[in-house]
């Protein structure tokens, strides 16, 4: 995430620079669009919140801590720990592809799905930290930029729910998006 660089510039340069990688690019036609109502927005927020919570519980671990542990002690076996965040982000993305998305959230949803794919590729490249520094540098460039934009999209999601007056209660899975 670079100040002054917008998402579209980042996304387009990533697609161009990593055309030979396994980054799958999704478009609006990959999603099931539903009309936007308070009920559809609430269902979306709760479904997404549940997916995120389940995948975080199923695949714990902080990728940067794992990377640091592997490099500090020159422990290649510790890099296997990166599989957990890779599987977490991939799982969130894959389940987001199956969601019904209210029309007004399609742009945000699309960005989040594509950014999750870029984050997965970035972390996969980081697994080469002890053997391929060039590939690792690519991952260390991709991942924080994609994460920064992803955080922006979560903030946009929060603002959208607030502007549509969809506020989730503490007992709802979507609470994390409007607290």
Structure at a glance:
The chain has helices spanning about 5-15, 40-60, 65-70, 85-95, 105-125, 135-165; strands at about 30-35, 100.
Fold and architecture overview:
- This protein is mainly α and 179 residues long.
- The protein has 6 helices and 2 strands.
- It has a two-stranded parallel ribbon with strand order 1-2.
- It starts with 6 loop residues before the first helix and ends in a 16-residue tail after the last helix.
List its traits.
179 residues; 6 helices; mainly alpha; two-stranded parallel ribbon
Kindly report the spatial arrangement of strands forming the biggest sheet: 1-2
> For the terminal residues, how far apart are their CA atoms?
24 Å
User: Mean pLDDT, nearest integer?
Assistant: 91
Structural class: mainly alpha
Low-pLDDT parts are none
Tell me about the biggest sheet? 2 strands, parallel
Separate helix tally: 6
Element-level helix/strand string: HEHHHEHH
Give the DSSP E fraction (strand runs of 2 or more residues): under 5%
Total beta-strand segments: 2
Dominant shape: globular
Radius of gyration: 17 Å
Helix fraction, binned, reads 55-70%
Topology, please?
Layout lengths: L6 H11 L14 E3 L3 H21 L4 H10 L10 H14 L3 E3 L3 H21 L6 H31 L16
Parallel strand pairs: 1-2
Helix pairs in contact: 2-4, 4-5, 5-6
